Amino acid sequence: MDRTKKIKAPKIVEPDEKPFEVQQIIKLLNASRERLLTFLNTIEDNSILANKSMEHPALGELPLDQWVEQIYLHEERHIEQIKEIKLHIANLG
């Protein structure tokens, strides 16, 4: 959650540089969450996620079950970014 450290997103998840409409972003986020939940619901034995790992850009090698557990922290980080941007914009006007 330390936002003083900038973390470079891997190419595969870098955001598009073009602007999005708010409703478009919400639709994309909902679709992404639905795909994740659908996938997670196909896993019969959740322990399989603990036995597979993948490199995390900030945390190093991380088991997939911990990736799932970290989703809310990732979202919180972006929520804080949005709040900062909104505050900055409000202070400009």
Describe the secondary structure blueprint for this structure.
Elements (H helix, E strand, L loop, with lengths): L21 H20 L5 H5 L1 E4 L3 E4 H6 L1 H22 L1
Antiparallel strand pairs: 1-2
Overview of the molecule:
The chain is globular and about 55 Å long. Strand 1 and strand 2 form a beta hairpin. With 93 residues, it is mainly alpha-helical. It has a two-stranded antiparallel ribbon.
Number of helices: 4
Distance between the termini: 29 Å
- Shape field: globular
| Neighbour order of strands in the largest sheet | 1-2
Q: What is the element string, with H for helices and E for strands?
A: HHEEHH
The tally of strands reads 2
Radius of gyration: 16 Å
On the 0 to 100 scale, the average pLDDT is 88
Taking the sheet with the most strands, its summary is: 2 strands, antiparallel
The fraction of residues assigned to DSSP E strands is 5-15%
Helix content: 55-70%
Helix/strand-derived category reads mainly alpha
- Given as residue ranges, the uncertain stretches (5+ residues, pLDDT < 50) are none
